[in-house]
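Hello support,

Our group uses your service weekly, and this is the first time we've seen a run hang past the timeout. The protein is ABC transporter ATP-binding protein. I'm not sure whether the cause is the sequence or the server load. Input pasted verbatim:
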Amino acid sequence: MRILVEDISLSIQGKPILQDVSLDIASGQSLALIGPNGSGKSTLLRVMAGHICADQGQVTIGKDRLCDLSPRNLAQRLGFVSQEAGTTDAIAVEDAVKLGRTPWLSLLSPFRGEDSRIVETAMSEMAISAYGKKQFNTLSGGEKQRVHIARVLAQTPQIFLLDEPTNHLDIRHQIAIIDWVIRQKSTVAMAVHDLNHAFACDRVAVLHGGKLVAFGEPSEVLVPDVIETVFQVAVHPNFAAQLNRPVLAFSKSAAAQ
Ligand code: ADP
Ligand code: MG
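Update from on-call engineer: The timeout came from a worker crash unrelated to the input. Re-ran successfully.
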């Protein structure tokens, strides 16, 4: 499902946080959102998820404007894992993942075998099947992160918005998440810091001071000029060659096991 972001601007307490941001992510594409701390990545994802309203501009999901969709309808189409995702502490891991099915349930359509299978598959994809009965609050940061991703997987949306999904994860689980993003038939937009992760996506968008300063294919966007200006770092002369031959081999590990 396509997600179209048009001319989004947002100020908080008079301070511009996002200015005229436009993005077009085709159905099934993956987009990496990069930029320094405070550049507006999380705010943009929250606007795209319908959690906060922009002052100007609009977001279109499939054929519908975000603001025309009911919360239930939106949750059936779009799953969001925020940067500081929380879950009630006193909850078992499998119950936390089951919450992902909520938008599909009603009095006439209670939780059934098919929902159980979806939950089991999501837990297996995130390698948390063994933790089903554990209390969420006893897990490590990385395990919690995988539970959050399993919860949105169980939601079976056509669009995933992930705010720093590889945060807290060890290298093996980082690779598993990025591999999963690459394999996805769904549309994925994620904020990331690791340029190798950005390079693995179909498109890269760069935010700087709330403005979109570059948007395109990784090889067009992840060039020394952009990186040096936006991140205020000196780029190694072998930068492009190194990114093209990442240390981590994505798409090799089939699952997060
Ligand atoms: P990033 O995710 O790129 O680090 P954020 O979107 O979290 O950036 O924040 C962008 C800017 O907006 C920051 O300067 C931050 O302080 C500010 N900001 C975000 N949310 C709020 C808020 N609720 N109130 C005040 N300022 C905010
Ligand atoms: Mg952020």
